[in-house]
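Lab meeting minutes (informal)
Scribe: AK
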Amino acid sequence: MNDAHTPAFRFLQDIAANLSREKLVFPTFSQATIKVRTALEDPDIDAERLGKIVSTEPLLAARLVQMANSAALNPGGKPVGDVRSAILRVGLSSVRSVAVAVALEQLRDGAQSPAMRPFAEAAWRHSLQVAAIAYVLAKRLSRINPDEALFAGLVHDIGHFYLLSRASAYPEMEQNPEELAEILGQWHASIGQAVLHDLHVSDALIEAVGEHENRHYRSPLRSLSDIVSLANIAASKTNPVPSLRVDPVSVIKEPDIVDALNDARGEIVALATTLRG
């Protein structure tokens, strides 16, 4: 990989050059995500005004209503049928996460190369799984805002999507998926940090993204990094890079964490399914 004449070396040179620019060339979020993010920066935004913005994006609106009616958020079984009511049920913070889930789905579907699509599909599904687990862990075992944990889980592998978007310009990479997987495994966490730094997210989130593959967390869970790392371990079987997978049973030893994950299996499945659409 260090040979200056190899496609992998040229690819990594291009990555380094792009990351050194002031603005990253990467369609991280869809127009819907940008509009929602801008609206949520208004401290006076309410569910009715945000609902009107969300309603202009049919897929996002439908996904929010679906999430509000999911088993995870509607244990009483009383359905809602409009966007405003859905926002009130899921909360303003969760609207951002649902918008990101839709954007990641669009990034997956937008993979130009057939060789890249399996990588994008795997990263998307793993992100949804980690997000659902992170939400449950935050709610049950920490004082971290569950909505923040959900968002962090969704974007923890954003570096994968960045690398895949750049790799599509290198047809030679398609011929060596093992080498691409190695690059993804080694670079995606640090590149994810750079992408999120460019989007001006919190330092806690940037730290969590940079450390999520370290297989380390503190118990009791005290930080966003603890939660995302633990969720990534718990969802390890779906990690898009096979060499990074571990056996969760061999890593997670704390009885309270094991019990919480077992008790919340239905909630995790329901939330991940809702985000998947």
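Next up, CB showed the second protein from the same session:
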Amino acid sequence: MELAETSSPVKHTDRIVCSICIANYNGEQLLDDCLASILAQENAPSIEVIVHDDASTDSSVELIRQKYPSVKLLQSADNVGFCVANNRMVAAAAGDYVLLLNNDAALFPDALSKLLEQAEAGPGNILTLPQYDWVTHRLVDRGCLLDYFYNPIPNLDADRTDVAMVIGACLWIPRRLWIELDGFPTWMESIAEDLYLCSIARLRGHEVRVVPGSGYRHRQGASFGGNKPSQSKLASTMRRRRLSERNKSYALFICTPTPAMWALLALHALLLIAEGLVLSAWRRNPRIFLDIYWNAVASVVKERARLRSTRNQLMKLKATSNRRYFSVFARMPRKLSMLRQFGVPDIGK
């Protein structure tokens, strides 16, 4: 067995309402704040906390065993990634609801009570909370909209609660819905699995919403690198960008509910190639084009039969109108606004 349960679950006399699932890899410096925020919840429902340790090389496991013995700890002998880790935790969960929480995030004290209140008012929805930057405490987003190339756009409108997606750093979902949707797609490895899950949920007639009145703090990019402007510049890594561009292309192919998808996909491929050539020339690094942008296009071509099969199966189960699905999409391409605001991105190793 590659997975071992090495500590006892939380003991409850009542049913477990929510299972909080935390994927961890070398998060020794992050976990304490995350787990402490859970223990500090006010008016919290009956919960269990599950941590999947992804073969960490630091002292994460020792920290959990010594300081948080009530946590159900799942230890993996191999580094399996975010998607597999979360799928394993939900499979071991007993709660009616599941909250996926990053190890680099911490909940506000009333977070769980607010999420449960909204969940019971609108059953069957995916929820999140407003996200705040760990250091500056500034609002990052209230969930995200999408552009037509499946690039997330932070929702900053306090009056808007319906969104296209929520990030996996704080994602609340009924466990039965997770099972119905088959959880995170392991073939994505990491990055954009939350976008994909929310998109197929919306196609199946469910809503994705942000719950106002509470929130969570997040060290953006601490667990994977990149994903956050630094000194007014947008910085990312080769691995993050490679997975992001490839997986967003997969999501566009599978989830766009219109015959126009083919034209959109062709335009998307041309724009990726153009962007990759320009960025590679600007940074004088041909690997940027080959490893990120050409890889995204080539991966779609290589996997087209499987992607088409997945798309066909999903469209048979479609339970929402195209108009409703696209109601949380924005016309302005996200990358154009990012270029205007931050200039050409830096891409590290």
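CB comment: The first strand starts at residue 3 and ends at 5.
No objections, moving on.
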